[in-house]
Amino acid sequence: MFTQRLLPLALVATGLAPFAHAAELRVLTHDSFELPKPLLAQFEKQAGVKLSIIKAGDAGAMVNKLILTRANPIADVAYGIDNSLVGKAAAAGVIEPYAPADKALQSLPDGVVSIDYGYVTLNIDKAWFAKHGKPLPSSLDALTTPAYKDLLVVPNPATSSPGLAFLSANVQSMGEDKAFAFWARLRDNGVKVAKGWSEAYYTDFSRNGGSRPIVVSYATSPAAEVFYSKQKLTESPTANLNLPGGVFQQVEGAALIKGGGEREAARKFIDFMRSTPVQQALQTTMWMYPVNPAAAIDPVFKHADKPGAVPAADSKAIAARGQQWVARWTRVVLKGGQ
Questions:
Q1: For residues 166 and 120, what is the distance between their CA atoms, to the nearest angstrom?
Q2: Which terminus of the chain, N or C, has fewer Cβ atoms within 10 Å?
Q3: Rounded Cα gap, residues 169 and 120, in angstroms
Q4: Which of 114-118, 232-236, 266-270, 309-313 has the lowest mean pLDDT?
Q5: Who has greater pLDDT, 26 or 318?
Q6: Which helix (H) or strand (E) holds 218?
């Protein structure tokens, strides 16, 4: 989600529909949602609706907003509920299952339809490490040693989906007690906590003027650095640090919101998000991999060092224990407890 922006919760109408009296389809998304306007306009024309995109912050904040407004839903369909959050959304009763016509494409649990996937991992600022002559950490435990004091920034798992994804990868790899002992050592070693991914990457990461050369981000972020650079680059200024226990395969999905309206158009929107043109476009707008195999991988992704074998996320464990993990993480990291 490299293009994520710091936006307040607001209703953003695309203004693309040519229909003066078309029905409004309200789409709740995280701040990283971005697709070419011609594609959105084409959907509006085909579905006979006017799109209103509601950007609600990070995906974690978006799901919290869904839960807080379930008595009076603010949207009809949502995009960006991922495999670390789907259990929370389902347990709160805010989503309505939908089975797409194409059963060949992977779907998330509880009737949330998979749209794209990516990898949450650590990114490093190559120039910073070269300038300081410091070797890259070889393990997560190395980040707790004096050599890497005050070098790491992470998004808060209570409000950030990549933050929760990274924490979930730690717990799945180490077990709960060892994972939180690891986080206690990180706290003592000066880990910085940002509210969300945008703050961590665009404010605290040394590549963007901050003081932290290691950040929890995405495996595609180095490719995005090349894509958006004003200079022609042959290699990315950042790199992935795919350490065991520090990589999470994130699958994002779309879902009908329980109690929402415009059901036919909402289902069409989910199918639209899985169409080949959208699946190709989202790669260099939202920096995720397509779930539709018919979509060719963009050449710039050669700069994204895709992790090797990554354990499948335990969505059931995250759904059952995720809130307890976040509460314990808050005690350990933010309050200095156990």
A1: 7
A2: C
A3: 9
A4: 309-313
A5: 26
A6: strand 214-218
Residue 38 clears pLDDT 90, i.e. is over it: yes
* C-alpha pair distances (Å), 323 with each of 20, 30, 52: 45, 20, 31
SS3 of 175-215: the string is CHHHHHHHHHHHHHCCCEEECCHHHHHHHHEHHHCCCECEE
Rounded distance between C-alpha atoms, residue 163 and residue 154, angstroms:
7
**Token output for 179:** 């994972």
pLDDT tens digit sequence for 223-256:
999 999 999 999 999 999 999 999 999 999 999 9
Task: Give 85-151 as a DSSP string.
Answer: THHHHHHTT-EE----S-TTS-B-GGGPEEEEEEEEEEEEEHHHHHHHTPPPPSSTGGGGSGGGTT-
Q: How many whole angstroms separate alpha carbon 119 and alpha carbon 113? A: 18
Interatomic CA distance for residues 130 and 62, integer angstroms: 38
Give the Cα separation of 128 and 241 in Å (integer). 14
pLDDT tens-digit map of 254-265: 999 999 999 999
pTM of the model: 0.84
Q: Maximum distance among all alpha carbons in the chain?
A: 63
Q: Strand pairing partners for 12?
A: 53
